[in-house]
């Protein structure tokens, strides 16, 4: 909710403005009143309201002078000036000084309501833009951009000194995120304290606050009716350079439920008590030596390490990346530790792991199954579809052949790397994904041509081809005749 300061030298006008709108329903609250320019300027500096509605002509400091002095002092509030018809020249000056808008006396309720809707939209957009700009600045980390970072913080009534900030990451439940939308902070219940929202993922939001408000914000989130998978607090911010690290570690802390299996609660980031490097290295060696029992034992040790909270989400990403590397490179993988840096090529982001598996237990079970299957694949190929994952893929293609299938979409459906699926087709079927899908589709097309009187165009669509001419081209290439001649040869009349 945005704060508003009402300024007029006549108290009855201030009371009238209060009564002319249901301010809270428009997303605003009246933060204070001032009856002269001097008092208004003092309140502006102390309370930093988001919006100021001020009479344009007042004794002493006028609305125009108030605006000018506020701008000189770096105050970023949106000003709306109120004037009579005879004062329109003053309105022009106010607009030149950067006033957001103006209202004419007597203030009309509908005009005020329309103005509040417009202001709310502008302020929301400014917050979104500030969040995106701040995220971009933090990624670049150029020393000369530090003043711009401080300016963004001040604009949102946050401490200009990064050391006075705290960073929280809120990870919403997947269903809740789908219901509320992907906009940063959508549906979050935060107390009335200055803050800035940063979108850090599809369902995660970073919240920058004054460190002094940390406890009240965490308390509000713990009472929230919105289902939250986790709330994380990042490392202490010591400078602008550490702000990005605070945001990242807050996100990792919010993802702790993935490792422990327990959703909800507040997690303060701490450096991992144990590094799984040695276990990951042993896992690679066990795979190379085809030691199934050792693979199972090591994965169980990793699962226990995760559940006891001695690790963080990055190590789950490393494990998944290593498993994908081993599967892709097979038992030819080198034993030297530096060779496993390639695992980053196959490791998803931590947020992708959250979406794919939900928790580390499921991910490790999947890794165990894939590693054992990969060991079976190392045996001489028979040409039969003996691999469990391959059976599932072929069955899936048989059922959904008419959909817009691709190697990537099918691999994602089975939580496999596309290159790995491609290798499965080569090893198990001596074919490619594209050729096998075409075979399935054309077999079904042949059945439709001989068993139904559907038009050729309808047959193409049911077989998964939106383009009739492309269908006719590959059909003739495969069978030597057009679809219509194929039907005629089978004794049915061709219908286009």
From TrEMBL:
Please state every residue range assigned to the domain named HTH araC/xylS-type: 391-489
Q: Which SMART domains match?
A: HTH_ARAC, REC
Q: Which InterPro entries match?
A: CheY-like_superfamily, Homeodomain-like_sf, HTH_AraC, HTH_AraC-typ_CS, Sig_transdc_resp-reg_receiver, Tscrpt_reg_AraC-type_HTH
The alphabetized UniProt keywords are: DNA-binding, Phosphoprotein, Transcription, Transcription regulation
Q: Name one GO biological process term.
A: phosphorelay signal transduction system
Report the residues modified as 4-aspartylphosphate: 55
Alphabetical list of CDD domains matching this protein: REC_YesN-like
- Molecular function (Gene Ontology), one example: DNA-binding transcription factor activity
Annotated Response regulatory domain ranges read: 3-120
SUPFAM superfamilies per record:
CheY-like, Homeodomain-like
Q: What organism does the record attribute this protein to? A: Cohnella fermenti
Q: What is this protein called?
A: Response regulator
User: Which Gene3D superfamilies does the protein's record reference?
Assistant: 3.40.50.2300, Homeodomain-like
């Amino acid at each position: 909710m945005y704060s508003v300061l009402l300024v007029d030298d006549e108290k009855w006008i201030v009371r009238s403005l209060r009564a002319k709108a249901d301010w809270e329903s428009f997303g605003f609250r009246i933060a204070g009143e001032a009856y002269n320019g001097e008092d208004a300027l003092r309140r502006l500096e102390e309370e930093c309201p988001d919006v100021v509605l001020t009479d344009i002509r007042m004794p002493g400091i006028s609305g125009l002078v108030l605006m000018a002095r506020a701008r000189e002092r770096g105050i970023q509030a949106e000003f709306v000036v109120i004037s009579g018809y005879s004062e329109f020249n003053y309105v022009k000056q106010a607009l030149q000084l950067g006033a957001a808008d103006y209202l004419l006396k007597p203030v009309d309720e509908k005009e005020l309501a329309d103005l509040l809707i417009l202001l709310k939209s502008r302020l929301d957009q400014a917050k979104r833009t500030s969040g995106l700009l701040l995220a971009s600045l933090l990624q670049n980390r150029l020393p000369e951009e530090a003043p711009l970072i401080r300016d963004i913080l001040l604009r949102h009534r946050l401490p200009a000194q990064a050391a006075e900030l705290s960073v929280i990451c809120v990870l919403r439940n997947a269903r809740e995120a789908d219901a509320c939308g992907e906009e940063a902070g959508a549906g979050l219940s935060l107390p009335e304290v200055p803050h800035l929202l940063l979108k850090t993922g599809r369902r995660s939001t970073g919240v920058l606050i004054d460190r002094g408000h940390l406890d009240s914000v965490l308390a509000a989130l713990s009472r929230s009716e919105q289902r939250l998978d986790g709330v994380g607090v990042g490392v202490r911010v010591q400078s602008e350079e550490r702000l990005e690290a605070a945001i990242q570690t807050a996100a990792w802390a919010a993802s702790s439920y993935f490792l422990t299996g327990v959703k909800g609660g507040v997690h303060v980031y701490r450096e991992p008590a144990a590094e799984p490097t040695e276990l990951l290295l042993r896992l690679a060696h066990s795979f190379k030596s085809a030691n199934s029992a050792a693979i199972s034992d090591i994965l169980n040790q990793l699962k226990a390490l995760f559940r006891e909270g001695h690790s963080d989400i990055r190590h789950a990403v490393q494990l998944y990346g290593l498993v994908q590397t081993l599967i892709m490179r097979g038992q030819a993988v080198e034993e030297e530790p530096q060779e496993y840096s390639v695992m980053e090529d196959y490791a998803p982001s931590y947020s992708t792991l959250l979406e794919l598996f939900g928790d580390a237990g499921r991910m490790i079970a999947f890794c165990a199954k894939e590693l054992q299957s990969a060991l079976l694949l190392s045996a001489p190929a028979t040409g039969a579809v003996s691999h469990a994952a391959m059976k599932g893929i072929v069955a899936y293609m048989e059922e959904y052949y008419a959909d817009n299938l691709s190697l990537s979409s099918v691999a994602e459906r089975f939580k496999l790397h596309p290159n790995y699926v491609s290798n499965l087709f080569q090893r198990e079927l001596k074919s490619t994904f594209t050729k096998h899908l075409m075979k399935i589709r054309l077999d079904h097309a042949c059945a439709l041509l001989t068993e139904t009187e559907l038009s050729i165009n309808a047959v193409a669509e049911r077989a998964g081809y939106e383009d009739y001419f492309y269908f006719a081209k590959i059909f003739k290439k495969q069978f030597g005749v057009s679809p219509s001649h194929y039907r005629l040869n089978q004794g049915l009349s061709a219908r286009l």
